[in-house]
Specification:
The complex is a heterodimer.
Chain A (H helix, E strand, L loop, with lengths): L2 H13 L8 H8 L6 E5 L5 E5 L7 E6 L4 E6 L5 E7 L11 E4 L4 E6 L12 E4 L10 E4 L4 E3 L2 E4 L2 H16 L6 E6 L9 H8 L3 E9 L18 E3 L1 E2 L2 E2 L2 H12 L6 E3 L20 E8 L7 E4 H17 L6
Chain B lengths: L9 H11 L9 H11 L5 E4 L5 E5 L8 E7 L4 E9 L2 E7 L11 E4 L4 E5 L21 E2 L12 E4 L4 E3 L2 E4 L2 H15 L6 E7 L7 H10 L3 E9 L23 E3 L9 H14 L4 E3 L8 H4 L8 E8 L7 E4 H16 L3 H5 L3
Parallel strand pairs in B: 3-12, 3-13, 13-16, 14-15
Antiparallel strand pairs in B: 1-2, 2-12, 4-5, 4-9, 5-8, 6-7, 6-9, 7-8, 10-11, 11-17, 14-16
Classes of the chains: A alpha+beta, B alpha+beta.
């Protein structure tokens, strides 16, 4: 796929709303675009499991998130005001008013609670929805339209959807020599471990996750990290877990024999849920490809489509090279 | 809605009294387990204590194509563990579960299954010089005096609070989660015939949802429910203003969870419980999303995933020496859970999550 088409597809995906546990629109989008020879089903938690026709037990698993960070409405102090509980690691808004969009289409503008001198938590912010009312429990996402800028896309959920798009492109392009299943996982941005129960049910021998990752390339950044536009991260370590070295080497070999760039990654930040997959059943060797994202999970995240395509191509090359990367 | 849920009996209230006056801190739930066994010995097809101490009770369905439902309520409470002898009947101790040191100051405690009475001392005002500071656990001792004979480090202690009922209000310790345990006992005793009911009285919820994790793995149900007790934070704020960040409110019925720290509730179950409450004219409220969690946090990710929901009785003052709940909230919780289970069909789970 050429970069412009991929960028358009990414923009289309970021227009869909899928806070954790409420991923219906993205799941439907994927179900309508399955490649021939694959069947999809939705499990009890909302994970979308895509398996090759006739394959009962996949050898490998590719996992990407269905969801994005979102919010849930809480009672506010007066009519027309609500508070928001974040669903996932949503960064606090800056001093300028940020906007969210509720599931029923209502827009809300965030403003610090004047009763709190120094807002430090989401409970210290108010959301102005007047003259509408929003019932407790309604979900919301950042209200940001996607904006392409050269090879980059700015907008809400750009990192999460970029990870999903890389897995989706690999699903369409790859011709693995053995059965590989794709899990588009529900609730990956909260400690719900959506992919882990799916993996438990499928019992694969190994798994590769594609995830968004916080870029560390701002000028003067104290701890440098991934750079946007230099390829996906190939993670060496998760919080509390070490990436399986055999799978990491397998992915590295695939990238090394092709012109697609990648970056070794050792993330400094702790992520909410993605460390659970290696502990499924009797243990699941796992490796991770990450899409560098500026302003990860904020209203205006930024990704480079070149990183998405490199991740998709690298994954495809690995899947077509060897089905037994564990040796 | 063409069903009439049973009501809680006087005996249920008496059981709640006995349950809250029992000491069963996480990891030492035996005394509560014994009470539950006694209450259900004539009502279960099968009763089994697993390796961690969870008590599993099975009431098979009396109808075909029944949904296999796991309902969990945790037997343990927050409390203390004695760690070192400090001489003269004094013991150093540490909290078990989420407790603040200041809640223990000047409180009487029951130590061990024999409920020996001890006191956590506090400095009298005469001896205070300068501004008082909040104590740390290292500052505190449990004073057992002559009762210290035969007490060993490792024994648990809990607040020594007697159950009291005043009109519609109950004051007691350990309502989290003895009210869930009492509700689940009633649910087993009056089990809706349409469901294959697995009641799990779980251990070690307060220290990491440990019991529920293995129970859900063992039972592999179609649906899991956690019956718990959730903090109400509904008292007025400063200068009498409404507290806008209340979690739940007393007197507004059972709290249905939409999301908490570890779980996003299954939407189908939320809708079903909401519709059931409306159909029966029962009060209900949504617990605010955000922190805290229940056994559902562990259960919903077991096996290949289990659609789950938490339903709680709201109470003020949880994880302190004395908590408060309204009997009408408890009554509505029992009736809602009973009715929602009685009308639960496989068709609900065939909908997309």
């Amino acid at each position: 796929m050429n970069p412009n088409d991929a960028l358009a597809l990414l923009a289309e995906l970021t227009r869909l709303d899928a806070p954790p546990g409420y991923e219906g629109p993205v799941r439907a989008w994927l179900q309508a675009r399955l490649p021939a020879g694959y069947t999809a089903r939705t499990d009890g938690l909302g994970n979308l499991l895509v398996l090759p026709d006739g394959a009962a037990a996949p050898r490998g698993l590719v996992v990407a998130p269905l969801d994005e960070v979102g919010f849930m409405a809480q009672p506010g102090p007066a009519a027309g005001w609500v508070r928001l509980a974040p669903l996932g690691p949503a960064p606090l808004p800056g001093p300028a008013a940020a906007r969210v969009r509720f599931a029923d289409g209502t827009r809300g503008v965030l403003t610090p609670d004047p009763a709190v001198p120094t807002p430090k938590a989401w409970a210290d912010w108010l959301c102005d929805v007047a003259p509408a009312t929003v019932p407790t429990g309604q979900t919301a996402v950042w209200d940001t339209a996607p904006r392409p800028q050269g090879s980059r896309l700015l907008g809400k959920a750009a990192g999460s959807r970029a990870a999903l798009l890389a897995a989706y492109l690999a699903l369409h392009a790859a011709r693995p020599h053995c059965p590989v299943a794709w899990v588009f996982a529900s609730r990956e941005h909260v400690p719900g471990h959506g992919a882990a129960p799916a993996a438990y049910g499928l019992q694969p021998a190994w798994a590769v996750r594609v995830v968004p990752a916080l870029a560390g390339d701002r000028p003067g950044q104290r701890v440098p990290g991934l750079t946007v536009g230099r390829g996906p991260g190939l993670r060496r370590r998760e919080w509390g877990r070490v990436a399986d070295p055999r799978l990491t080497a397998w992915l590295e070999r695939a990238f090394a024999t092709h012109p697609w760039p990648y970056q070794p990654e050792v993330p400094a930040d702790r992520e909410p849920s993605w460390a659970s997959l290696p502990l499924v059943a009797a243990g699941l060797p796992t490796a991770t490809l990450s899409i560098p994202t500026r302003n990860l999970h904020a209203a205006h995240a930024a990704v480079d489509i070149g990183d998405v395509l490199a991740a998709a191509h690298g994954l495809q090359a690995a899947l077509e090279s060897d089905c037994d990367p564990l040796g | 809605m063409d069903i009439t849920p049973p009501r809680l009996s006087r005996a249920a209230l008496a059981r709640l009294r006995a349950l809250t006056e029992t000491v069963a801190v996480s990891g030492a739930e035996g005394p509560v387990r014994a009470l539950v066994r006694r209450a259900l010995r004539d009502h279960a097809a099968q009763m089994h204590t697993d390796a961690l101490g969870n008590l599993l009770v099975h009431r098979p369905a009396q109808a075909p194509r029944a949904v296999r439902v796991l309902v969990a309520a945790h037997m343990d409470e927050v409390g203390f563990m004695l760690t070192h002898r400090a001489g003269d009947g004094l013991f150093r101790f540490r909290p078990v579960g989420g407790l603040r040191p200041e809640t223990a100051l000047g409180q009487a405690v029951w130590v061990g299954p024999q409920r020996r009475v001890g006191v956590v001392g506090s400095t009298p005002v005469h001896l205070l010089h300068g501004p008082a500071r909040l104590p740390t656990w290292d500052d505190l001792r449990i004073d057992l005096g002559p009762h210290g004979q035969g007490v060993e480090p490792g024994q648990r202690a809990a607040f020594a609070t007697r159950f009291r009922r005043v009109g519609d209000t109950v004051f007691a310790k350990a309502l989290d989660d003895r009210v869930g345990v009492a509700t689940l006992i009633e649910l087993v005793r009056h089990a809706p015939p349409q469901v294959d009911l697995w009641a799990a009285f779980t251990v070690q919820e307060e220290v990491g949802l440990r019991g529920a994790r293995v129970v859900a793995h063992a039972v592999q149900p179609d649906v899991a429910l956690a019956l718990d007790c959730t903090p109400a934070r509904d008292l007025p704020g400063p200068q009498g203003r409404q507290n806008p960040t209340y979690n739940t409110r007393l007197g507004h019925g059972p709290a249905l969870y939409l999301a908490d720290r570890m779980t996003i509730s299954d939407r189908r179950l939320v809708r079903h419980f909401e519709a059931t409450a409306r159909g029966l004219g029962l009060p209900y409220q949504f617990r605010q999303a955000g922190g805290g969690t229940t056994d559902a946090g562990a259960m919903h990710v077991q096996g290949a995933g289990i659609p789950s929901l938490s339903v709680s009785v709201p109470a003020r003052g949880l994880h302190t020496p004395i908590a408060t709940l309204r009997v009408r909230d408890w009554q509505a919780t029992f009736q809602l859970v009973w009715a929602a289970l009685a009308t639960l069909t496989p068709a609900l789970l065939e909908q997309t999550p």
